[in-house]
Amino acid sequence: MRLLLLIFLFVQVSASTAQTTGATVGTILRSLSGGDMMTGEVIDIEFSQSPKYTLLHFWKSNSDSCIKDFPGLLKLVNGYKERLVVYGFPYEYKQDIPSAKNTVNRFKLYWAQLLQYRQTGTQGANVIDVLGVNEFPVYMLLNKRGAVVVRSVSLLDIEVVLKRNNDD
Known about the structure:
The chain contains five helices and nine strands; from the N terminus they run H-E-E-E-E-E-H-E-H-E-H-E-E-H. By secondary structure, the protein is α/β, with parallel strands linked by helices. The chain has one domain: 3-Layer(aba) Sandwich (Glutaredoxin), CATH 3.40.30. It has a five-stranded mixed β-sheet with strand order 7-6-5-8-9. It is globular, with a radius of gyration of 15 Å.
């Protein structure tokens, strides 16, 4: 019951997403926080403090699809760095954390990486579970209000929005 209450406090789901689990376009996230995998620092994400958008990147170090996307992700982040702040959410078993750290360094993913512990059993990674992320990679682009503007497995969908709104 306590976990259920946390979920409702954590994510405000709009009426248009009533039939869908997790965060979809239009969902407003109030806040997110977690421990940075690389530094151990606790990160509190405040969407209103972002330049224009916040990109949430959910990934796993043992996913070929994720690894394949890293160069394109880095190019996108560098191309829109004045308008975008990025947070990674690596979803890892404890024994895979060293590999995930190596992946961050190898691909120069030098932004906060809020580790999500992948566990067996009924309890998993809180942010992953609450937002309904069940495939990887997943990208969520949020505006300054914390509203999900895009949720996609493709960087192209994120780039379309960033290009379209490049002048405002």
